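User: structure tokens for this one?
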Amino acid sequence: MDNSERPRLSIDIEAHIEEAQSQADTRLREALQKFLGPTPSRQERIRLQYPMRLYSPPARKPKLLLSVFAFYARELHIAEGHHYQQYPRLEIWLRKLTERIIERAMGIVVNVEQFGDGHELSLWYHGATIEEMRQTIFDEVEPLIRGRITPAPPSPPPPPEVQRQMADYAASGVDITRGSPLLQMAMATHRAATRRARQHVISPLPSPQSARPQVFAPVPPQIETPKENTPALQFAAELERLLKEARWTPEAIADEMDIDWRTVYRHRKGDAQPTLKTIWAYEEAFTKRLKRKITLPTPVKRQNVIKKSRKRQ
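Assistant:
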């Protein structure tokens, strides 16, 4: 990249920028995967597969999706742009940085779409277009660029009391830096006010609950309390072990069982207890994969379930 695209930076700054870009890309990719919605063909297939069940598709959130791109652009622009010095080509460099951020974000969108194609999921479910994503990034970084290229306001003059005391000390031939403690305190206050006036303050981010996705919000460290050994957690531990042994991803076994991959993730984390029918489907899939009889823990005894089903018949 030549000098027309960006200024020359030291190797340690380049390494810092690359690390920040990698972390931001990972957060954007994970956030976009959570926004993947079912395609029309997938919705129709679910309705045909479960005709007696009322199917309600997930809510569309185009504004929240666009806010993810706004936060990503702001993070990358600050991570690299604040290292640019005040040169005549500063505005050109910042504009080029915006173009690279847009190109980087669109590449991640393509990767997420390729991941969703195999599961009949897409970001376009929410109705946000590529042009809206680009415009969101541009609108987010434009105030940052204007704040950098706008000249800083002139420093305010010292208060009249300080000016009079400075003049008295100068007339008497006394160095004001070694004057009275009161004068030193007044000068320190004046210097602090001058620094604040010359500083470019970045406007605070909106609340994560209003616009920003909480996936990017900093989370304070918390001490996790140990969970009880519930049947759901017992099943999750056994499911995790079998997935590793079978070398299966949650998406792969979901396709094999013809269920939603999000359901497998909930079972894998122990957030939900699978039904007995789902447990039998897991056992059938793992038995076929590992070529041996697999039995998973169930919340009730199988004999009781078989007896109840026979009584109903």
